[in-house]
């Protein structure tokens, strides 16, 4: 894998020095490389060696050259059905459009001016054997693009009994300030509303740090979004629950939302297994009514431009942050002079 990456890096450096740079670089991976780099008894879904991922490494090489990359594996071109042809054509077209024009494939009217949305995800940075926990932030502030902010190393990270990281007061304040500083630099003013999605419950120290960081923001909404609740709904039909179905438990302010399921516009359910809802718990610091919070999360499941699916399961604020974290945790992240904030370098 390292030999192949060396060749890719050399070719991209040659392209980078050209007087006319391309808008994107398509990297076709030969079947011989797929076979040679895939560990025995594993499929070709992910090519990894000693904890390093081939796709992630190529993304980092492109980022260093400031040219987005598009990977194509032999399986991408092994088309057997019209549905595969349609979905792959869509993915390639939208992906290359997004990368070639540096973002903004389309915009939405559903994000109000002055509202700042962010998703928090953690990853471990490998640093000569010592793990350093950072936070990757998928930051959406105007409905036209995902902006990725890499935090500084976070002090005093604590893990709960489930292994989920939690921020100290100082780390939470640092993360909140970083998001709002970027927003203010782009928009010229602080937001009137700040929404933070997090895949684990908020601890007291996290609340206090975020409260201090967001001083002057009128509305603060902290929301816990969990992927695997122990709840299923079984409607009396041949199809699973409809996408958008919501089961609320008002006494506990907990909500189970089907972000995948039967889609009436398509008159079918496109998934391969029985869908399950995600769990949404507005924190005690949440100014917006819970129903509106759930509607926004449902909307954000349609805001990942890296898929041809009707929607994704988790909101893009959280899922994009998690995906970016896997790339930023690669072994050669430190060799990059500057980590780029634009999502098109990562997708």
TrEMBL record:
Q: Name one GO molecular function term.
A: nucleic acid binding
Instruction: State the name under which the record lists this protein.
Output: Piwi domain-containing protein
Q: Which organism is it from?
A: Natrialba chahannaoensis JCM 10990
